[in-house]
Every structure is written in C-alpha cells, then in structure tokens.
Amino acid sequence: MAPRFSEWGRWFENLFAAGFYSWGCFVARHPGKIIIASLALTLFCAPFISYIRINLDLFKLFVPHDAPVKTEYLREQAFNKIPAGDLTVNMAKNISKRSAYPMFTDIVRYYVVKDNYENLLESETLAMLYNYTQEMMNVTLDLNGKTWRLEDFCRKDGDDKKCNNNLNVWLKHADILFRDAEGRNNPNIQLSYPVMYLFNRPKDIGNVVYGVNVTGEKHEIIGARVLTIHWFIYFEKTPESGAAYMFPRRAE
C-alpha cells in the first residue's frame, strides 16, 4: 500500500530534525573553526555588497496588474506630464506704439457637436479634436497674391514667432481622463460639476464645455454635448490683413 501524505510529512520532519541535530553537534565540537569560517566568508562577500541592487519599487512588486489603483496611478502620471497651458498674456515688447494701424484683438471660437448632439467626452473623439486643432494651425489662404497663415493673426507669447495651442491642450487632458468609464475618482484628475478645478483651469469651464451630464455624489461630469476650441487673435489690422482675417473661420 502506497504511503500516505501524512507519513511522508512525518518522514521529512524526522529528516530535518536529524539534520539540525547533527549540525548542532558539529558546531558544539568545533566552535573556533565555525567562527573563523564565518568571518572569512563575511570578508570575502563584503566587497560585493556595493553591487547588490534591491528592487524597492513597491508599486511594481505588490500592485496587481489589473488593479484599479494601478490604472488610476498610471493615468495620473500621464496626466501630470501634460502642461496645463499658460494663459498669461505676454505681449511682445517690440510692438511699435506709433503704428499707423490699430492692433486688433479677438478670439476665434469653434463649436463642436455630433449628430443628434451625442456625447463628445470620449477618448477617441477628444484625441481627434486635439489633432484637428494642430492641423488647423497650418491652414493657409492665398489672397491677392499673398499667402496668409494662422500665424499672421494669432496672439504670440512675448517675442515668440509661433502661436501656441495652450487654449486647446485641455483636450489632451480629457483624452486621458475618459479612456475608460472607470478610475475617475482621483481628485487630482477628476472632472466635477460644480467645478472647483478643470484641468487646473477652473475659470475656463464655461468656455469649453456645454450641456454636461453629471452623476454621483461628487457630481462627476460623464458627458457633454457641445465643446469648443479657441485661439486668441492679436495682430496689426491693415487693409490686407483685415480682409484676410476671416479665413480661419472658413477652415474645414
């Protein structure tokens, strides 16, 4: 009859007990040799201690791959890498105040809606919209033998020669936020209404999101029917530039 597991367990127990007993007897008979051998082994291993690398990244070691907290943490890391967008007005210092033409200030605003006013706060849609704003900055118009670009009309920061897309960078933030229907409870990346913060820019909520759908105790925004994209306009309004100014509004 084959031995049972309990019998195997008892056999291993007796084996280990006998081994430890024999080792104890050996140490008791040769204490000096054991001490010298231990010190020699310690001295031999000491130079290699500096090469030891211990992985103390507890997040990778102990957080399960599919844990919601991992998704939330990784999303927050990606979220924090995106600049919030500096909306400070820094006009160029070299603009002549004696120009024969006035400086024209405006804002170009496009309203984005879907058929039947469906939800726009979806990651794929938001990413597409941001890429679209980048493409719109390269739109050109040939008028009276001259090529006009958005760069000729948009407001630059300081002495920059190029426009920035800071007004629309919130679309990238929202893209990360709405990549799935879960993990939006972290207050650092939460989109709530009434809004205490909107991607670090709470004052802009009324300019970019309309027709919101809210839910839960935190009044979390889960959808919106209308979004807007913007550019600040600031240029010297000559007869030629004034005639060409409407071209960004015709972009498709």
From TrEMBL:
Superkingdom, natural source: Eukaryota
This protein's record includes keyword Membrane: yes
UniProt entry tagged with the keyword S-adenosyl-L-methionine: no
GO BP terms, alphabetized: endocytosis; molting cycle, collagen and cuticulin-based cuticle
Source organism phylogeny: Eukaryota, Metazoa, Ecdysozoa, Nematoda, Chromadorea
Transmembrane segments: 12-29, 35-52
Keyword annotations from UniProtKB, A to Z: Membrane, Transmembrane, Transmembrane helix
Name assigned to this protein: Uncharacterized protein
InterPro entries: Patched_domain-protein
GO cellular component: cytoplasmic vesicle membrane; plasma membrane
